[in-house]
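A quick aside before the break. I want you to see a complete sequence-to-structure record at least once, exactly as it would be stored in a machine-readable document. Don't worry about memorizing anything.
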Amino acid sequence: MPQYMDYTISKVPIRVLTPSVDPARLRIKSLTVVNAGHLPGRTLRRDGASFRHWALVLITGGRGYYRVDGGEVQRVSAGSWFFLYPGAIFDYGPDAGAHWDEYYFTAAGVRLEEWRRDWLPAHGRVYELPVGELLLQRMENMLRLIDSGTPDNLDRAALRLEEFLYELAAGGTGREAGREHFAQLVVEDIQSVLHLPPTVSDMAARHHISVSTLRRIVHDYTGYPFNEFVHRLRAAEARNILLNTDMSVKEIGERLGYKDMFYFSRVFKRITGVSPREYRSRIGP
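That is the input. The structure line, written in tokens, reads:
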């Protein structure tokens, strides 16, 4: 997933995703993801801002404010979420001299009107939910689906966004039940043992399920086959290590479970479009 430096927004790398797919290739016509992103360390403040599309904004760190149409100034902190939408003027952003960590998902389509009419909470308010690893993983999984750029995964991302919003509207606290919760635990477990590296048979045994069931869970939840999902998790971790340490490419590959540095470099380039060394030289300080 590409990262960018834009010092007008943040002092650290941000991710901004704008999928470009022919609408005719989407199966779900009533709801589409227009764009999404993760803005860690955001310092940019917006005053008098207006928007063409509806968006969900979720703050996972930091503090700031949110105001609609010159009304009450509402406080924002880790766990706050709110909407941006057409037809109103917004003032929002981190406090002066502070920052916040932001995920946002912008959507369009006639289904939004049903949401607003029948079950979304009132617009123009700040709401709260607990921030934890499962919530962050859920945000990251939606970003991965969007980042893939494939029509099927963009449809999946739209459905995941709708499901997440429905849980928020129903008073969800981030503790999912049943198969959804189990899938999140499996994905989180895979992410936690990237350095081993995990095999599909070992992971299936850890969770007392068959290999075929594990493969189906990972594909349905992330949009990728098991091995590809693991490679992409490792590539994401490798990007972080490249930007924040002086470890060699060989050391990074070994830390992430790749015994062959050249194979690691080929996988990294296939996923990111550049080699590890090029990534560090282009994106890094």
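Two observations worth writing down. Confidence is low (pLDDT under 50) at residues 173-177. The longest strand covers residues 54-68. We'll return to this after the break.
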